[in-house]
Fold this protein.
Amino acid sequence: MDTAGGRLRWALADSWTMTGRELARWARQPVQVVVGLVFPVMLLLMFGYLIGGGRGIEGEYVEFLVPGMLALTMAFGIESTMLAVTQDLDKGVVDRFRSMPMASSAVLVGRSAADMLQSALSLAVMTGVGRLLGWRWHDGAASFLGAMGLLLLFRFAMLWAGIHLAMVAGRPEMVQAVQILVWPVGFLSNAFATPESMPGWLGAVVEWNPMSATATAVRDLFGNPAAAGGSWAAEHAGPLAVLWPLALLAVFFPLAVRRFARLSR
């Protein structure tokens, strides 16, 4: 009998199948996976040893830098998901899936689940490299897990923004143009430097950046030094680290679902 429980089990089974399909790409494209893991490590080493200065930061710069890099890692890398979505659209793969007896939501859910698994792996790699550089967290396991939860929540919101923008772009060659939008979010933030070390107007922009809220909140949870800003955004980074991703999801999740539903109409 077609019950709500039966439809849910069907959708979950289809979503897991699509997740497996996306994970199989890792085996076929190992270089892309390795590059995605190594790129943020290279940024961490570059800013930690070549460029990093830590002006305005009390304590070790690496303890300020690593949480910021973890947040930056969650913002970057969505181009691989955007590219996979546009390739499936361009080749007609999505249309074939939609013609099959499967839950239509499984395509997007499987793609997002695979991305979140890769994001968790990236966090594990970056955390390990950070410890090798001397970074430590100081406030126990519960705070550590809370920080990881905030980072993955931010990634989940960025992911659905990327999925929607990929469907708007439509073609793989357009992804490079669209993904440039991610760079201001990443670099106009407090990942590498405090807003106090910047011009006043730029510091205000940086403090209200969603990624800055996440970076500041996870620094607090890790017990690492944070910027000593006195603005409302700096003092309420924890709530903003939850509210910003939820606001992004409230906008882009329904837009992505609606766009996907209209693709073959």
